[in-house]
Amino acid sequence: MHQYGRILKVYNSVIHVSVDGAEMLCKLRGKSMRGRDALLPGDIVRLERISSTEGVIEGTEPRTSLLLRPRVANLTQIVITVAAASPNPHSLVVSRFLVLAEHSGIRNIVLCINKIDLIDGDTAARLCAPYEAAGYSVLSVSAVEGTGIAALREKLSGEITVFAGPSGAGKSSLLNAMDSSLALAVGAVSEKIGRGRHTTRRAELLPFAGGYVVDTPGFTQQELTGIAADELADCFPEFLHFPGCRFTPCSHSHEPNCAVKAAAADGRLARTRYDAYITLLDEIRSVRR
Questions:
Q1: Up-side HSE of residue 241: CA atoms within 13 Å toward CB?
Q2: More confident residue, 60 or 199
Q3: For the whole model, what pTM was predicted?
């Protein structure tokens, strides 16, 4: 009788699959695991048991999302984590990560601003405002003081989450603040598989709060590989608030009578977000040239 399970990790051709809360060691029947057909953590698979702890994978279910770095399938949430200070957040970096998240097809995107204890309330409000206006769920947290940790833990409940963001944002500290055993598990995985510059990164799903957290404290690659110039505007959801451009399609860069440009000019659209869009658009165009 066939059963269904979720892949936790793939290591040395052994596929670790969670089936009804128990981990099984599986092999793939008669197929290659390389290239496009490679099985990934997060994949839902159909398998046949051959013992209480072993099975053979017969097939896979269609993916709902695919993250390329690290390669994980069927994620339901990305938590973009940045620091409120030390290091200071850069609006272009934040927008770049949000664009990558939007383009991945993952439905839930949360912006988590850590180290909120290092800035005052007015500064925090100004920092959050452009992203809240774009429609993102924004959490202000402090791993040191415990502020917002309960809300972050609730966001992770039942979801399959990867953390993303620049170095120094305190992602590991947040994991430790939510559950020290989770941070220890992440650290053990990182030490086991290595984090060298040329080391292959194997992702792993770790059970947490009725869902999973991806093994690493996040993906840090920021290249906009695979995003076309005419797709970029779709990765800025607040642009939809300003219809009525003279030309269709409109790149919102050089065209006259552009509703998005007008909104940025008169303050209805955050200037930092529009400037980030133009910078990233120029980057994509220069690469293609």
A1: 13
A2: 60
A3: 0.85
**Residue 207: φ, ψ to 5°:** -60, 135
The mean pLDDT of 252-258, rounded to a whole number, is 97
Q: CA dihedral in degrees (91, 219, 67, 154; nearest 10)?
A: -80
Per the listing, tokens 């009788």 go with 1
* Beta carbons of 175 and 165 less than 8 angstroms apart: no
**Dist CA 91 CA 275 (whole Å):** 9
Helix ranges (DSSP H) in 73-179: 91-104, 121-133, 149-156, 171-178
Q: Residues 172-177: contacts with CB within 8 Å, 24+ apart?
A: 172/217, 173/114, 173/143, 173/144, 174/81, 174/112, 174/114, 174/141, 174/143, 174/149, 175/213, 175/217, 176/143, 177/143, 177/146, 177/149
**The Cα angle at residue 142 between residues 97 and 222, in degrees rounded to 5:** 15
Q: Specify the length of the chain in residues.
A: 289
